[in-house]
Amino acid sequence: MEHFALGHWLLVLAYLTSVVGCALGLACAVQARHTANPRHRMRWLVLAAISIGGVGIWLMHFVAMLGFSTPGMPVRYDIFRTVLSAILSVAAVFAGLVVVGGRAKFGWWRLALGGVITGLAVNVMHYTGMSALRVKGDFGYDGGLVALSVVIAVVAATAALWFAVFLDRLSLRLLAGFVMGAAVTGMHYTGMAAVRMTMDVNAPDPAGVEVFSFLFPVFVLAAIAMAVPLCAVLMAPAVSPSAADPASVSPEDAVAVRAGGRE
What we know:
Layout: H1 9-33, H2 38-64, E1 76-77, H3 79-101, H4 108-131, E2 133-134, E3 137-141, H5 143-166, H6 170-193, E4 195-199, H7 211-235, H8 251-262
Antiparallel strand pairs: 1-2, 3-4
Helix pairs in contact: 1-2, 1-5, 1-6, 1-7, 2-3, 2-4, 2-6, 2-7, 3-4, 4-5, 4-6, 5-6
């Protein structure tokens, strides 16, 4: 099997796809933390989950899979499992963001739990997507590399959430997108390195669809889906601690504000 049948430039494209989706999604998560209205907060988190789970994770996976091939033998995908992997990815990311980004008040346990859930969402998407793979033969995984892929995703996703949610500088939020893109891409190729295939040239051609047949319309849908959160972020007012819920202001800051008012 080959992982870069179309060339190593595909790795760069997959990484940039993940960075764009993750950076935009994390920007939506920041808006959610600084929104007092619970309904608006949930809307921001839904947009964040679609951007991260749908584009940053799911689309990145299948962009990278364009380079996967079994020379001389077809590769197909079960469309139901492929769609299921997208749904699971968005839902799992949403759950992680609700934990870490659903409230303005800081909490280390929220960050840790949100990082674990979001990191596991990357793995859930990858291995569910891989279960849709159909080849002339069977394949399994190296357990050690699978465990390593889980660790990579969880650690890097936690770091990305910390950068994006708890730091106010735009440059650091952008850095969070690159960190999370590295988590998704690194996890993907570590997971692919864990694949162990046993091919059977005499087996019948697998049922399913080729990745090219569904990826182009997915790109179009992703572009449309990305336009909504992008416009929302660009039109949203700049966030600041004063715009957040009162719970987000530390006791020290509150004392300083009251002291300033008395002066």
